[in-house]
Amino acid sequence: MQTLFEGNLSKMRFKNNGTETAIKPNYYLANDNFEGDINSAIGQEIEIDFNGKINCIACGKEIKKTYAQGFCYPCFISVPQTEECVLRPELCRAHEGIARDMEYAKENCLTNQYIYLALSGGLKVGVTRYTQVPTRWVDQGAVKAIKVAVTANRHNAGLVEIALKNILADRTNWRKMLTQNDELLPLLGEKHKALEFLNTQSLQYSIADDTEYTIEYPVADFPKKVTSIDLAKRPKVSGKLSGIKGQYLIFDDGNVINIRKHAGFYVTIQQ
Fold first, then answer.
1. What number is the average pLDDT over the span 86-111?
2. Which partner for 57 in 44, 70, 193, 217 could form a disulfide, CB atoms 3.0-4.6 Å apart?
3. CA-based Rg of the chain, rounded to a whole angstrom?
4. One-character DSSP codes across 177-192
């Protein structure tokens, strides 16, 4: 068998084989020793073996369980990548000079943030910094996205998102996202509805451009039902890889593995 990847998992990266607005992700896994083209395994039998070893993705310490997708507990409560504003932007205090790491905050929080609409198992609202377009949408498995507004910092973006949660969902229905492609609804009209609502609020933002982005994932067939596999409970998984969407490997029997959830797990992936 050919080894596609060996080492500690981190989230799948991608190279865009499409255009700036019509994105076609080619997924790969990489570390210091391997760069495995995972797209090349679609339609083929693969085997994933977890050897029982987990390392913190920040400090490298061997651990028994992870927090926040790959961290040991001491790193989870101290590194800037897991600060509470990662999940709840409205709680960001970097604009007040308060953060775990102000240099990190300057690059990630005190910079332009987009509030966007995306089709990912349904219509949802979200926040991402400008450097994460379109990566954030690809990681979520969105098939279409549009920027609604832009703010100068993460806190203000979070306040806009909180307001829009009154009329929009903010979570991805991962099961729906993996069992079908969202209907490619025109998002410009939904953006206008969101802006009409925001006009009734006292918030700081600018209106973003109207560019619509589409994402075409390498999926041969979508399963009718999915079962999420936890490598800590089932350390060996094999089957025909039918596609990749978001951070999930999709097998033809409906089993799926969230690669990002298993960050830090030491695995061998063979084809």
1. 98
2. 70
3. 19
4. HHHSPPP---HHHHHH
